[in-house]
Design goal:
- The chain has 15 helices and eleven strands.
- Helix 1 packs across helix 4 and helix 5 crosses helix 7.
- The strands form three sheets. It has a four-stranded antiparallel sheet. It has a four-stranded antiparallel sheet with strand order 8-7-10-9, with helices on both faces. It has a three-stranded antiparallel sheet with strand order 2-1-11.
- The two termini are about 25 Å apart.
Length: about 400
C-alpha cells in the first residue's frame, strides 16, 4: 500500500471523532509541521463534490491537501510564490474552462457552502507547483530536434488521449433559462455514479443520445476545444462537468473513460462542416423534419442538394481552422465522424431555428508551421512526468504526524 494511501486510511478514521466534539479547526494531520485541519478537509470535500468527484470524497480531499502542502513547501524552499494577481488570474482561467467568470463560479461555490479561500488556496497550490516544476526541470525537459522531427514525420502531436463521455442536453427559452440552470446544478449534485448519469440522461436529456443513456463513442481529446480538453484531463472517471452554456441549451458531460496512453495520434487542424438552419426551433415538427433529412442524406453534398428549397442564408458550408470555429459548434463537431449529424444546437434570440450540423471532414496533416505547437506539446508532457515523479519523492521524504 502506498504511504499516502495508508496515511489516508489511518487519519480518516479520526474524522468521526472530530465530528463528535473536537474543534473543526484543530489539526488532523501534519506534513513536515504544516497542519491540515478537519475544516479544510470538509471544505475540499465539498468542492470536490461540486466539481463532480465521486467516491470517498474525504479521502480524496485529504490526499489533495497533503499534496498541496508538499507543493507549497517545495515552492518556499526555492523562494517561489504566487502573487495575488496571479492567483486571481488563475481563478479566472479555471472558471473559463466551464465557460464561467470567476465571480459566477465563486457564487456557485458560496451557494454550496464553500469559502472563497478554499478555492483560492487550491489555485495557489497549482500555480506555485507549476513554477517549481519549471524551475527544477525546464532544462531536462528540452525537446531535441530529432524527437521533434519524428513527431512531425508521423503527422501528429505527441500528447493525446481519448475520452469516453456521456451527455445530458437540456434546452431552454429566455423565460426558462434560470430554472433550467438550477435543474442542471441539482442533477449534477445528485449524480454519484455512472448509473445515476444514465438514469438522468434517459429522464431529462433532449439529445438523440438519450436513447443510449446519453453515451457517446470514444473521441480523441484533441478534437475538443482546448479548455474543455484540459478540463477532461483533470477529471476522474465518473466526474461531471459544470453546466456548459450553449445557444438555447445547457449541457452536462460525464467522463466514463480515458485512454491516457500518451501515444502519438493525429490532431485536428481544421473542420469542414455544414449548417442548415431549420425554422421552428425545437418543436416536434422541426425534429421530424431533421430526422427525415438525416435519413435521406449520406454526405454534405447530399445535404447541399436538399438545402436548395430553403433560403440561401439558411445554408452555410465552411472550412475553418480549429481555433476559428465557434466554441459551441466545436464541442458538437468533436463528437462526430465524417458525414454524421448533430441537432443539439439552436440559433436565434429565442431559439427559433434548429441547427442541422453536419461534419464533412477533418484536416489532420501537420505542416512545418505547426512545428512549435508540437514542440510545446512534447515539452509539456515531459514536464508533467518530471513533476509527478518529484511529488512522489517529496511524499516519501515527508514527516507526517497526527497531533
Amino acid at each position: 500500500m502506498k504511504l499516502r494511501t495508508l496515511l489516508s486510511v489511518i487519519f480518516l478514521a479520526c474524522l468521526p471523532a472530530l465530528a463528535m466534539g473536537q474543534s473543526p479547526y484543530a489539526p488532523v494531520i501534519k506534513i513536515n509541521g504544516s497542519a491540515v485541519t478537519g475544516f479544510e478537509i470538509q471544505q475540499r470535500a465539498l468542492m470536490l463534490q461540486l466539481l463532480g468527484s465521486i467516491g470517498d470524497l474525504e479521502k480524496q480531499a485529504l490526499d489533495d491537501l497533503i499534496d498541496d502542502r508538499l507543493r507549497l513547501q517545495a515552492a518556499r524552499s526555492l523562494g517561489l510564490n504566487a502573487t495575488q494577481e496571479e492567483v486571481t488570474a488563475g481563478m479566472n482561467e479555471f472558471a473559463q474552462r466551464a465557460n464561467l467568470t470567476a465571480e459566477q463560479l465563486l457564487g456557485i461555490l458560496a451557494a454550496a457552502g464553500i469559502y472563497t479561500e478554499t478555492f483560492s488556496d487550491f489555485v495557489e497550490a497549482g500555480l506555485v507547483w507549476r513554477k517549481v516544476v519549471q524551475f527544477r526541470f525546464q532544462a531536462k525537459a528540452f525537446i531535441t530536434e530529432a524527437e521533434l522531427d519524428t513527431a512531425m514525420a508521423l503527422g501528429s502531436t505527441a500528447v493525446t488521449a481519448s475520452v469516453l463521455l456521456s451527455e445530458i442536453v437540456l434546452p431552454f427559452t429566455p423565460e426558462t433559462q434560470a430554472d433550467t440552470l438550477e435543474l442542471m446544478l441539482d442533477l449534477r449534485k445528485d449524480i454519484r455514479s455512472l448509473a445515476d448519469f444514465d438514469d438522468a440522461a434517459i429522464t431529462y436529456s433532449a439529445a438523440p443520445s438519450r436513447a443510449n443513456s446519453g453515451k457517446l463513442d470514444w473521441m480523441p481529446l484533441s478534437n475538443l476545444p482546448k479548455d474543455m480538453g484540459t478540463q477532461m484531463m483533470n477529471m476522474g472517471v465518473g466526474q461531471v462537468t459544470l453546466p456548459i452554456p450553449m445557444p438555447g441549451a445547457y449541457m452536462l458531460y460525464q467522463l466514463r473513460g480515458i485512454r491516457d496512453n500518451r501515444t502519438v495520434a493525429a490532431r485536428t487542424i481544421a473542420y469542414d462542416y455544414v449548417t442548415l438552419q431549420l425554422p421552428g426551433g425545437r418543436s416536434d415538427a422541426t425534429a421530424k423534419v431533421a430526422a427525415d433529412l438525416e435519413g435521406s442524406i449520406d454526405t454534405c453534398t447530399d445535404l447541399q442538394a436538399k438545402a436548395q428549397k430553403y433560403p440561401e442564408t439558411y445554408f452555410n458550408q465552411q472550412v475553418l481552422p480549429v481555433k476559428s470555429v465557434p466554441r459551441h459548434i466545436a464541442i458538437e463537431l468533436a463528437k462526430l465522424d465524417a458525414n454524421e449529424v448533430s441537432t443539439n444546437l439552436t440559433q436565434g434570440e429565442n431559439g427559433e431555428f434548429l441547427t442541422f450540423l453536419m461534419l464533412c471532414g477533418r484536416a489532420t496533416k501537420l505542416s512545418e508551421g505547426d512545428r512549435e505547437q508540437v514542440r510545446e506539446a512534447l515539452f509539456t508532457q515531459r514536464l508533467e512526468a518530471f513533476g509527478d515523479g518529484y511529488l512522489q519523492e517529496l511524499m516519501g521524504d515527508a514527516i507526517v504526524l497526527r497531533p
